[in-house]
Amino acid sequence: MKIEENYSLLNHNTFGIDVKARYFVEYHSVAELVELLQMDMVKQHPLLAIGSGSNLLFTKNFDGVVIHSKICCYETIRETDKHIYVRVGSGVVWDDFCATVAERGLGGTENLSYIPGEVGASAVQNIGAYGVEVADIISHVETVEIATGKTRLFDVSECEYGYRTSIFKTTLKNQYVVTAVEFRLDKIPQFKLDYGNLSESVASINPLTVKAVRDAVIAIRKSKLPEPSKLGNAGSFFKNPLIAESHFNQLRRQYTTMPFYRADGGLVKIPAAWLIEQCGWKGKTFGGAGVYEKQPLVLINKNNATAGDICLLADAICKSVSNKFGITIEPEVNYI
Ligand SMILES: Cc1cc2nc3c(=O)[nH]c(=O)nc-3n(C[C@H](O)[C@H](O)[C@H](O)COP(=O)(O)OP(=O)(O)OC[C@H]3O[C@@H](n4cnc5c(N)ncnc54)[C@H](O)[C@@H]3O)c2cc1C
Asked: Is pLDDT at 315 greater than 80 in this prediction?
């Protein structure tokens, strides 16, 4: 293991913020990770596990140890009539995994294609797109406890998955490092196409395949979202807020075209992109930061933005949504 000091994280966050980590280390196995966690350097400083930094906003230099998984295994572990279970290392690029299983014709990941990031973070974040969340196909999450170096296997039922959240972001935040994830994939794919214009995009394809759905998802995503390599961003900056039915009824009388989705517990989900657009933010800039013209939920590094520019822009957006609609929108991006 190579321990880098005073290491630039510029190539480890998709916003393209040039901050430094006091220490940076990549580990290639569970044994290496356990060895790393026992070092004084780790015990004496804050620790941050990162993937490819596609959901991080570094607000300052990180005066601690940043660790990154290079555990890149991929193996089939068991099989039933309907399912194939695969175990994938946390350092595998998420979309490489989606491409591999699509080639095998296995269903489950196709709607989640082309989401940036790595397999470890997918299980922390509960990534989701086109009506599917990764929690739907996870069976187990393999971890190492930071304090003790002990391995622990979480059944999916213990992960407390919810909208872009898990136990690893809440009760057990910063306590476990994910080393591998076990996925349950369908031998006979069960396509979910009832979200956005996905069904239209694949309507003429017969027979429909996992690869065809994956290609359609990628084409739609490419037409809507900026490529982080060309324009720094972290995807959706805010979560879609959930509001009470009474609040929704009151707003709907005034904003008759307001889009909405019914959610659990009698709550109503309002697209944050619509709220932000209604406040006039689409295409607006602040310092080097901006609101993406095609999708106002995405904040971009337009011109050498500092983290301060992005934070101020995000705060201003939150305030105007709160003033206009009485709704609090919260960042999906992790501020570090
Ligand atoms: C253009 C674009 C589009 C996007 N679209 C979507 C989308 O459609 N749906 C969606 O859900 N997300 C989307 N995202 C957000 C992002 O891709 C996901 O959140 C992704 O899971 C982040 O992966 P990462 O490897 O970059 O993790 P990072 O951003 O590096 O880390 C994310 C969090 O996970 C933790 N973490 C990372 N690895 C580990 C580990 N091994 N063990 C423990 N904790 C760990 C980090 O500490 C941090 O809290 C998008 C981002 C971009 C830039």
From this structure: yes
What global pTM score does this model have? 0.94
Closest ligand 1 atom to residue 124 Cα is 34
Q: Residue 294 to residues 130, 231, 284, 329: CA-CA distances in angstroms?
A: 18, 13, 12, 20
What is the separation of C-alpha 151 from the centre of its chain, rounded to a whole number of angstroms?
24
Residue range 23-51: mean pLDDT, rounded: 97
- For ligand 1, whether the C-beta of 111 sits within 6 Å is no
Q: 69 CB under 6 A from ligand 1?
A: yes
Cα 209 to Cα 187, 201, 205, 216: the distances in Å are: 12, 13, 8, 11
The three-point CA angle 165-167-171 to 5° equals: 120
Work out the number of other CB atoms within 10 angstroms of the CB of residue 147: 9
**Does residue 196 carry a pLDDT above 80?**
no
Q: How far is the CA of 257 from the centre of ligand 1 (A)?
A: 32
Candidates 53, 2, 56, 48; CA nearest to 25 is 2
Structural domains present in the chain:
3-69 (3.30.43.10), 74-224 (3.30.465.10), 232-335 (3.90.78.10)
Predicted confidence (pLDDT) per residue in 172-181, tens digit: 999 999 999 9
Whether 47 is in the pocket of ligand 1, judged by its Cβ within 6 Å, is no
Q: Which residues contact 219 (CB under 8 A, 6 or more apart)?
A: 201
Find residue 189's DSSP bridge partners. none
Neighbours of 53 (CB within 10 A): 27
Cβ(89) – ligand 1 distance below 6 Å: no
Tokens 């369908």 — which residue? 186
Active site residues: 164, 236, 332
Q: Please tell me the distance between residue 97's alpha carbon and the centre of ligand 1 in angstroms.
A: 15
Inter-axis angle of helices 210-224 and 94-103, to 10 degrees? 150
CA of 255 to the centre of ligand 1 (A): 33
92, pLDDT greater than 80: yes
